[in-house]
Amino acid sequence: MNIDPVREMFELQRDINRLFEGSLGKSSQHQTTLNAWTPTVDIFEDENAFLLKVELPEVSRDEVKVNLDDNVLSISGERRLEFEDKRDGYHRVERSFGQFYRSFTLPPNVNTEAISAEVKDGVLRLTLPKKEEAKPKQIQVKVS
After folding, report:
1. What pLDDT score was predicted for residue 67?
2. Distance between CA atoms of 25 and 37, rounded to whole angstroms?
3. Domain assignment present for 48
4. Which 3-state string (H, E, C) describes 51-109?
5. Does residue 51 fall inside a structural domain?
6. How far is CA 26 from CA 90, 92, 100, 113, 131, in A?
7. Strand partners, 50
8. How many domains are contained in the chain?
9. What tens digit of pLDDT does each residue of 72-96 get?
C-alpha cells in the first residue's frame, strides 16, 4: 500500500475545514441550511508539470477567479443557489452552495509565468509547468 503524504495532508485539511464548518454553522430541522462548500481537488505531478483538477459543477467560468500572489495560487468563486425564491416543490436540498476559496503554496520549481487554466465539463484544470532545471555543465580545460 502506497502512502501519499501530500494527499494525506489535503485530506486532513479538508476534514479540519469540515469540522469547523459543522461547529460554526446554524442548523434547524425546519430550515434549509446552505453551507459553504469546498470543491474537491486532485493534484498530479509528472516530470514536466503539476496538474490540478478542481471539481466545479454548475459554476460558470465568470464565477471563478484564479490568482497568484507571492507563490500562493488561490482559487475562489461562488456556486449560486438555483431556486432563489422558488422553494415550493423542493423536498430536500443537500448540495452546498455559496462562496468557496482554496489556496496552494507552490513549490519553487513551478514556472509561474507559464501557468494555464481551462474549464471543461465542470472541471477547472490548472497546468503548472516546472522550470527547466539547471543541469551541471562540464567546462573543458584548454592547454596553452
Report:
1. 96
2. 12
3. yes
4. EEEEECCCCCHHHEEEEEECCEEEEEEEECCCCCCCCCCCCCCCCCCEEEEEEEECCCC
5. yes
6. 20, 17, 18, 43, 46
7. 45, 128
8. 1
9. 999 999 988 776 556 667 777 778 8
Note down the domain range covering 72: 5-25+32-129
**Counting every residue, how long is the chain?**
144
Listed residue (98, 134, 125) closest to 25, CA to CA: 98
- Contact assessment for residue 125 and residue 53, using Cβ atoms and an 8 Å cutoff: yes
User: What local confidence, expressed as pLDDT, does residue 73 receive?
Assistant: 95
**Residue given cell 452546498 in the structure block:** 96
3-state secondary structure of 2: coil
Taking only the tens place, the pLDDT of each residue in 36-50 is: 688 999 999 999 999
In a domain, 141, yes or no: no
Question: 117: closest CA among 61, 69, 79?
Answer: 61
Residue 5 in grid coordinates: 503524504
Rounded Cα–Cα distance for residues 69 and 48 (Å): 22
CATH number at residue 113: 2.60.40.790
User: Is 96 part of a structural domain of the chain?
Assistant: yes
The cell for 31 is: 430550515
